[in-house]
Every structure is written in structure tokens, then in C-alpha cells.
């Protein structure tokens, strides 16, 4: 795997602690609560292999390459009262466990064993009240050499920006992805220096926050912006489809290119004007605070 995998909790209960547990799963986050569960019990386990013929379970974790380095992070709401541990277990082709490592602060850099055929990641209870889980990230070894990852857990937006995006860039490519699936695998095989990949885990509720995240990359030196449809883009709500038009109205001197097409209508025009007005107001507030 060369790139990044974004893994959600999953819409299944067979790999979760269920005795007396309350689990609420939605598009943005999963809430888990079982305060009386034993210390050391596994709250949730993600597997790289499944058993579709027996219980119709597909693997949530991506395949990894032997002897390669990876970084894993579990992203949860930070609550002082919650104390959690995480582990990764490695298995050979006969399903014998051949190794295990413990995460430090729910993050781990590790080398995938040469003899490993599969692996499991587990979130383990020490003490908790309510856990709000956002996603699990697995990144390839060369990831940080090319990209910077910024995670806004609260509103469910991930920014994956090429390291060389700065004020000298005359062009900027923005790719919008919707984290609709339980597992999203994003390949990073190209060497584009001007690419910003945005991942959205919820729809219209968070569009204004999403828009403000985009605006901070609109540099004075940028002349051309390309906006592209990423994974599952067609399932995003209308405001995301209007983004090229909104940016064109906010920055008339920019050359805004896009493969996102919308029908011209009075309703769409009103929506565009609404978001342009709100964005200008929000930008002005930011300027007032900074001054």
C-alpha cells in the first residue's frame, strides 16, 4: 500500500464489545459506551481478512507489503476521563500469531513482518465513559515526505496537502472526496506539487467549515485553480457541487477550472449568492479578530 487508508468504525457489531454496550454509528463518527466493561477487554477490532462466506464480513484493513514501514493513528475525541490502549497483532499464513506491538498515545510506526499474512488492530479498554471515534488512518512510509496531513476531527474534514503548496504556486489542484465507505484507500502515486486532497465525512452541515478550509489555500500568487471530483463525490450535497461557482464569484480574477457541472437555475444562483455572502462575512470576522 502506497498512500493512505481511512477506516471508519464499520457498520457491523461482530467485532465490537457488545455486552451492555451502547453503540451509535453515523457518517461522521461513532459513539461507544460501556463503562462497566472489564479492563483489558477489546472494545473494537479491525481485521485485514474477513469471512464473507460464513458471516458476510469483508476486511476493513488494507493489505500491507512485507518489510515496509507504516504509520497508524486512531483519531478519537480527546476526553481526559477516557483511558485507552491499542495494539496491532501479526499472523502468518496458518493464522498463528507471530508478533504484537503496542501503540503509544494511539499512534504507532512499525515495520510489517516479512512472514505476516494478515493483521488485526484492536482498541482496548482501560477506563472510559463515552468514546467518540472518528477514523483510523494507515499511511505508507513515504507519505510524510510528499504530503502534510491536517485532521479536523470535530467537523470531519481531512486535508492532504503537497508539501510544496505555498505562495509561489501559480496553480492549485483541489480534489474533493467523500468518505462514504467504511474504508477509503487513496493512492498517492503521482508527484504533483500543487495538489490538495480534501476528504469530507459529512454533508451540508459542515459545508461552511469546508469552504473556509479551502479559502485559506487561496494565495495571492495563485492564478489558476482546478477543482476535481474525487471518490464518491456524486453523493455529496449540492453546496459541494456549487464550489467552483462560489469560488469564481469570490475571486473573479482567478481562472477556475472544474469537471463539476451544474445546471444553471434561479435556485442554484440564490444558493451561490448565499454562500458567497456568508463566506465574505466570515472572512471579515477573521480579519477583525486578527487586527
UniProtKB/TrEMBL annotation:
<dbReference type="GO" id="GO:0015031">
    <property type="term" value="P:protein transport"/>
</dbReference>
<dbReference type="InterPro" id="IPR022259">
    <property type="entry name" value="Acessory_Sec_prot_Asp3"/>
</dbReference>
<protein>
    <submittedName>
        <fullName>Accessory Sec system protein Asp3</fullName>
    </submittedName>
</protein>
<dbReference type="Pfam" id="PF15432">
    <property type="entry name" value="Sec-ASP3"/>
</dbReference>
Amino acid at each position: 500500500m502506497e498512500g493512505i487508508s481511512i477506516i471508519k468504525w464499520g457498520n457491523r457489531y461482530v467485532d465490537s464489545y457488545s455486552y451492555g454496550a451502547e453503540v451509535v454509528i453515523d457518517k461522521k463518527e461513532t459513539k461507544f459506551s460501556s463503562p462497566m466493561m472489564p479492563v483489558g477487554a477489546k472494545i473494537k477490532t479491525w481485521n485485514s481478512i474477513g469471512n464473507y462466506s460464513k458471516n458476510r464480513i469483508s476486511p476493513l484493513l488494507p493489505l500491507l507489503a512485507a518489510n515496509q514501514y507504516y504509520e497508524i493513528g486512531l483519531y478519537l475525541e480527546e476526553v481526559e476521563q477516557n483511558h485507552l490502549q491499542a495494539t496491532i497483532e501479526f499472523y502468518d499464513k496458518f493464522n498463528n500469531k507471530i508478533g504484537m506491538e503496542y501503540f503509544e498515545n494511539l499512534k504507532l510506526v512499525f515495520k510489517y513482518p516479512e512472514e505476516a499474512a494478515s493483521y488485526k488492530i484492536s482498541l482496548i479498554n482501560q477506563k472510559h465513559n463515552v468514546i467518540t471515534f472518528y477514523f483510523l488512518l494507515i499511511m505508507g512510509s513515504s507519505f510524510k515526505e510528499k504530503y502534510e496531513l491536517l485532521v479536523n476531527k470535530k467537523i470531519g474534514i481531512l486535508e492532504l496537502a503537497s508539501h510544496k503548496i505555498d505562495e509561489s504556486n501559480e496553480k492549485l489542484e483541489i480534489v474533493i472526496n467523500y468518505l462514504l465507505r467504511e474504508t477509503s484507500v487513496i493512492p498517492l502515486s503521482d508527484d504533483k506539487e500543487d495538489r490538495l486532497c480534501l476528504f469530507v465525512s459529512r454533508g451540508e452541515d459542515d459545508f461552511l467549515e469546508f469552504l473556509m478550509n479551502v479559502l485559506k489555500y487561496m494565495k495571492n500568487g495563485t492564478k489558476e485553480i482546478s477543482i476535481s471530483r474525487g471518490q464518491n463525490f456524486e453523493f455529496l450535497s449540492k453546496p459541494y457541487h456549487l464550489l467552483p461557482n462560489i469560488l469564481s464569484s469570490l475571486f473573479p480574477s482567478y481562472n477556475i477550472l472544474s469537471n463539476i457541472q451544474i445546471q444553471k437555475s434561479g435556485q442554484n444562483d440564490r444558493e451561490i449568492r448565499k454562500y458567497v455572502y456568508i463566506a465574505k462575512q466570515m472572512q471579515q470576522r477573521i480579519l477583525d479578530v486578527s487586527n
